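Progress against Task 2.4 (sequence-to-structure conversion) is shown through the following example record, which the project officer requested during the mid-term review.
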Amino acid sequence: MEITFRDEKNKTLFYGVIHKMGIDPEYDPERAALAYLITMDDVCREHIADIYNFDQNCIRLNCFRKGWQTSTSRRTITLAFNLYNSYSTKSNSADVLTIFSGGYQKYYVQALRIRFPHCEW
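Structure tokens generated for the chain above:
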């Protein structure tokens, strides 16, 4: 699958994160979609270790309470967690209209393509 990256930094960080996760994106699209999103957003890029625990291979739910969060990073992480393991939150940031209301729609759709590689897009 050809992936549309936001920029070269997204591409470099994505491949670095999936390497650190120890996954093959073709066989672990859940983590690949997560990696794609958290390396795409500028704020998330700076806080990858706050979002994902590489030692235990799991997401860090407490990242939503961190002071560095922005409305865009919160939407991005909500989508990333939802694609990873269907995580949802009761906050407003969980509905699809809110998530897709920012400027990253193109990249959010790319994450859906990564997560669901067998769908015809």
